[in-house]
User: Fold this.
Amino acid sequence: MFFEGIIVLVMWRYYKRDINLFNFTKKNRIGNYGYGWIAGFILFAVVWFAIVLLHGFTIKFVFLGTNLVWLILFLFGFACQSMFEEALCRGYVMGKLLKKSTPIIAIISNSFFFMILHMLNSAFSIIPAIGLLMFGVLMSLLRLYGYSLWFLGTFMQRGTSQRGLSSERVFRG
Assistant:
């Protein structure tokens, strides 16, 4: 997480004036952050409940109140990691691709780049690859439509934290 923070600060230092590469605008920053949080929560809740209804996994509540500090640290970590990925993928990489090629090529290339970033995760297989590719396309389309990186980073953070915290190994007592 420290490395990700340094990269975002370096990117901000060099590209803060280029809205196409680093779209963390000051205008309506809190609104974009809030809308991203709500939209991400709704999308990932719908997906999560659909998986539960289709018996893709079962729910077992294992959170202990004594783990509240860990919960806050996990949420902070997910927020930093998501903002880093969005600044890199939908900010810098997609911004450069849009300057040098067509939007279609930028969306496809950026989505594959996003998927490749996650290939070292444990249990990586074709199903998560397809999901990551589709999510990359969705996020690239939202970026192309004009959503700020505040919105996109928070949107992704909601899904990352819901998915990450639903892992059985995170909050065992």
